[in-house]
Amino acid sequence: MARIEDIMTLAPVIPVLVIHDPAHARPVAEALVAGGLRALEVTLRTECALEVIAEMSKVEGAVVGAGTVLNGDDLKSSVDAGARFIVSPGLTANVAHAANACEVPLLPGTANASDIMRGLDLGLTHFKFFPATAAGGIPALKALSAPFGQARFCPTGGIKADTAADWLGLPSVLCVGGSWLVPAGTPDVAAITARAKQAASLAA
Ligand SMILES: O=C(O)C(=O)C[C@H](O)[C@H](O)COP(=O)(O)O
């Protein structure tokens, strides 16, 4: 089983993907991998998300995970579809236990000290910080990182191409997540690869 830190350090940015058409899965994944982003988070926000996970998993170099995983059932169907890591907007014992049972790395969302302490109790040390900008931005994550020296984060929510580097400058941040790489609509693969290259070149 891979460790979540191995997934988080594949590249400085994890694209958060909302894909409405399974036909877009492979071109989008190929464009992102070509730009240097290998860990891809497919959110379970669309009907076809599990199919998209299966399709993207066929792309060489792609390490495809599921996002918006809200419970154990979501987690199990994502793993069955081929997800190699799991991202959740929050942290519940239900999802953490399901991840252990399925032996899949988990990146659960935390927004405050109590969330992080619940995660530490469950044996977790790597967390999403969500919603990063709305939950207080960089000052909030700096303050939260102080008492939790062992914790490492992937801030997500409101981060864009021009703010990612500031977050990546924090010692507790291994990578950031964001949906800016693949805007809604028919994918422009050249533009996606260009954005991915820019993101991949950021210092983690
Ligand atoms: O769907 C999930 O599992 C989430 O937790 C939310 C997403 O990670 C953010 O919505 C991405 O944020 P933006 O980059 O601001 O679009």
Explain the overall architecture.
With 204 residues, this protein is α/β, with parallel strands linked by helices. The protein has one domain: TIM Barrel (Alpha-Beta Barrel). It is 38% helix and 17% strand. The protein is built from nine helices and eight strands. The protein has helices spanning 4-8, 25-34, 49-56, 72-81, 93-102, 113-121, 137-145, 164-168, 189-200; strands at residues 13-17, 39-43, 63-67, 86-88, 106-110, 126-129, 152-155, 176-178. The strands form two sheets. Strands 3-2-1-8 form a four-stranded parallel sheet. Strands 4-5-6-7 form a four-stranded parallel sheet. α3 (49-56) links the parallel β2 and β3. α2 packs across α3 and α4 (72-81) packs parallel to α5. The two termini are 24 Å apart. The model has no long low-confidence stretch (mean pLDDT 97). 2-keto 3 deoxy 6 phospho gluconate is lined by residues 16, 43, 67-68, 87, 89, 109, 130, 156-159, 177-179. Its EC number is 4.1.2.14. It comes from Komagataeibacter oboediens. It is an enzyme of class 4 (lyase). GO terms for molecular function: 2-dehydro-3-deoxy-phosphogluconate aldolase activity. Pfam families: Aldolase (PF01081).
Which descriptors apply to this entry?
single chain; 204 residues; alpha/beta; TIM Barrel; 4-stranded parallel sheet; 8 strands; binds 2-keto 3 deoxy 6 phospho gluconate
